């Protein structure tokens, strides 16, 4: 059985990651929702998400263009980084990878 303190310690990194988002006045509530969804879909220690705009839009009940605008905003503010990976066969559309930028999530109180 976990104690209250150990529960807090387990969730502390997750909570601290979102402090910067909460205090960033340049982000809209939708931007925060999109980031939160991307964060929840990240895999492994690389903090990479492979979700498409359509998947995110359907899940958050917004348009794909709203997702694109939010991703562009998050990218311009340094919360995420986008890379495209070519398929191994060389055919088809490149796979988009969205990386969470952990260094941006540390709130210093001066924003």
Give me the secondary-structure topology.
Blueprint: H1 4-23, H2 29-40, E1 48-49, H3 53-60, H4 64-76, E2 80-85, E3 95-100
Helix pairs in contact: 2-4, 3-4
Helix content: 40-55%
What's the architecture in CATH terms? Orthogonal Bundle
In this structure, how is the largest beta sheet organized?
Answer: 3 strands, antiparallel
What sequence of helices (H) and strands (E) makes up the elements? HHEHHEE
Low-pLDDT parts are 1-12
Structural class: alpha+beta
- How many individual β-strands? 3
Radius of gyration: 16 Å
How many angstroms separate the termini? 39 Å
Overall description:
- This protein is α+β, with helices and mostly antiparallel strands.
- The chain has one domain: Arc Repressor Mutant, subunit A (Orthogonal Bundle), CATH 1.10.10.
- 48% of the residues lie in helices and 13% in strands.
- The protein contains four helices and three strands, in the order ααβααββ.
- Strands 1-3-2 form a three-stranded antiparallel sheet, with helices on one face.
- Helix 2 crosses helix 4 and helix 3 crosses helix 4.
- The N terminus is likely disordered.
What are the salient characteristics of this protein?
WH-like_DNA-bd_sf; Helix-turn-helix domain-containing protein; alpha+beta; three-stranded antiparallel beta sheet; 3 strands; 13% strand; disordered N terminus; WH_DNA-bd_sf; 111 residues; 4 helices; single chain; Arc Repressor Mutant, subunit A
């Amino acid at each position: 059985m976990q104690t209250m303190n150990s529960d807090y310690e387990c969730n502390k990194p997750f909570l601290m990651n979102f402090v910067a988002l909460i205090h960033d006045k340049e982000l809209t509530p939708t931007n925060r929702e999109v980031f939160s969804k991307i964060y929840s879909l990240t895999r492994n220690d690389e903090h990479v998400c492979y979700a498409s705009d359509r998947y995110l839009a359907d899940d958050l009940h917004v348009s794909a263009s709203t997702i694109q605008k939010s991703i562009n905003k998050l990218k311009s503010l340094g919360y995420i980084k986008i890379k495209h990976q070519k398929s191994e066969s060389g055919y088809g559309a490149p796979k988009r990878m969205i990386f969470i930028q952990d260094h941006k999530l540390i709130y210093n109180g001066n924003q």
